[in-house]
Amino acid sequence: MLISRIDTTNHTLFDALLPEEWSRKLTLPSIFALGAIMDEDENNPQPAGVLVFSVQEGTDGPALLIAATIEWLFVAPAYRGGQVADALMNAFWDIIDQSGIEHILCDVPMPSEYDRLCAYLESWDFQFTLVDRYELTVPLRDISAISALHHPPRAVIQPLSQADPEAFQRFLAAALDQPGAPLDLPQSPEAYDMQSSCFYANSSGIDGALLVQQISSELLEIRLLRSLSASQQILSDLCRFAAQQAVKQYPSDMQVRIVCRLESVGKLIDKLFPGAQPLLIRRGYYDNTPENAASSEEESGDAAPDSNASSGDTL
Predict the structure, then answer these.
(1) How far is 3 from 48, CA to CA, in rounded Å?
(2) What angle is formed at CA 262 by the lines to CA 259 and CA 266, rounded to 5 degrees?
(3) What are the CA-CA distances from residue 160 to residues 14, 42, 92, 149, 206 (Å)?
(4) pTM of the model
(5) Which three-class secondary structure state does DSSP give residue 231?
(6) What is the DSSP string of 127-186?
(7) How far apart are CA 315 and CA 210, in angstroms?
(8) Which distant-in-sequence residues (6+ apart) come within 8 Å of 16 by Cβ?
(9) pLDDT block averages, 10 residues each, the chain of length 315
């Protein structure tokens, strides 16, 4: 078995084992992927499994924190039971140890079909707790029907097209230092819908922004909804402005995807979508600091099912 870094030269070999979302993200500097190849026939290599992980920097007071998140672990059905997942995890751990990354995360959905994946990661000393995460996709008509979004914003909200680029970069840097920041957030304002995306600025600079990206002709995705001051009023005003602009630009059946983990945004979703129910997620954590990290011994047998462990942070 050969473990290889997946990049632009070989990614097509593993496309059948990767969701389209992660195939698209492999070019991002924060996303890394490993592939397992069965090498019985050098002229016909067989992809056996993949492991995708992301790396993010953050701060805890004056300290710089670097965390890796396992986003996707998958073993092809034909090769389960052949220690493919073990080989991928060992290669992942080699990279983690060499890089000095001390915090490793993963999220596992609650349905029982993911129990084997959770148990497998627990065998590598991941500790799991239960958390809420909202994830919903709704047509734009449902958003435009929310009466609370019909009122004009109380604060002065401006379209992203009017943002000062340097102020926008400073805001993004501050937002990415907060928990739950999306790892693949585009840094350029031009990557977003410049009219539906919006921001609020005060005397200190940009305090909040709602960033919308058109993923396809049928899908909008809210990539970020943040107020650095955690102001519920600013979050509400940003939503009002963005919703009113989106209704002018897009057809009513345009789908809008919303994913969030932050408590402040969760409270807002509770108000706007009272029927929405948060997903219960098993969040795993491994402390790889020198004083706490336990040595990982090789495990026998693959338990990684046809499933993923994904953070999915976009708000």
Answers:
(1) 10
(2) 70
(3) 37, 52, 39, 19, 11
(4) 0.59
(5) coil
(6) EEEEEEEEEEEEEHHHHHT-GGGSSPPSS-EEEGGGS-HHHHHHHHHHHHTSTT--TT--
(7) 9
(8) 47, 76
(9) 89 90 83 88 84 75 71 93 94 92 86 89 90 76 92 94 94 78 74 94 94 90 88 92 95 87 64 69 83 50 51 37
